[in-house]
Design a protein that fits this description.
heterodimer, A: mainly beta, four-stranded antiparallel sheet, B: mainly beta, six-stranded mixed sheet
């Protein structure tokens, strides 16, 4: 158990809908990262938050947004869902973000299926 | 160009033997980090080992070692004394620090599926 929790574990929804994925980082970790893992795109970095502020963006679609709240949990919002958004969405956390080595702890992921 | 390249989609190794999983990377940043992760069939991502671009020595963590050749931009993972539980997908990843040093950008390879044969 990495200490990172993600809910829900599975989510099935229809095209055009909106969903919210939730992540709670390990206690004491200030950085939260979101990733998308799909069969055709592999593991893609989406976005990085540090202590409530967005710090880096990867291949995140405009239909997707995220935020990190004062209690450090994070939510990833996916809207106008398309079939291609079906994927495993991971959240990861770490203590910091710069310079020295650090380990990212991954949550168990949320499996999103868009039908 | 791909930031991380893993050219071995699948690998087989005999139990108790050593195996090398290849990874090459592409960056012009002087400071970066290289990671290896293991993803078993259960789906979780497990951190294995880290190598910083300025580290002089190759990283080692138990049976895992990273063969870091900076000039060749390669960061191969060596697993010694393979065990059946090592059967999994292995991902190489690179962290680039955003130029303003306010965040990190991560890139992952496509992974190598390792099967350990009894």
């Amino acid at each position: 158990d990495s200490g990172v929790t993600q809910t829900p574990k599975h989510l099935i929804t229809a095209t055009g809908q909106r969903v919210t994925l939730r992540c709670s980082p390990r206690s004491g970790d200030l950085s939260v990262y979101w990733y998308q893992q799909s069969l055709d795109q592999g593991l893609q970095f989406l976005i990085h938050y540090y202590n409530g502020e967005e710090r880096a963006k990867g291949n995140i679609l405009e239909r997707f947004s995220a935020q990190q709240f004062p209690d450090l949990h994070s939510e990833l919002n996916l809207s106008s869902l398309e079939l291609g958004d079906s994927a495993l969405y991971f959240c990861a956390s770490s203590v910091g973000f710069s310079g020295e080595s650090y380990e990212q702890y991954f949550g168990p992921g949320t499996r999103l299926t868009v039908t | 160009a791909q930031k991380i390249t893993q050219t071995q989609p699948g690998m087989f190794v005999q139990e108790k033997e050593a195996v090398t999983l290849d990874c090459t990377y592409d960056t012009s940043d002087p400071s970066y980090g290289l990671f290896w992760y293991k993803q078993p069939s259960s789906g979780e991502m497990i951190f294995l080992i880290y190598q910083g671009s300025y580290d002089q020595q190759n990283a080692t963590e138990g049976r895992y070692s990273l063969n870091f050749q900076k000039a060749r931009k390669s960061a191969n993972l060596v697993i010694s004394a393979s065990q059946l539980g090592d059967s999994a997908m292995y991902f190489c990843a690179m962290r680039e620090i955003i130029i303003t040093n306010t965040g990190n950008q991560f890139y992952f390879g496509t992974g190598t599926s390792l099967t350990v044969i009894p």
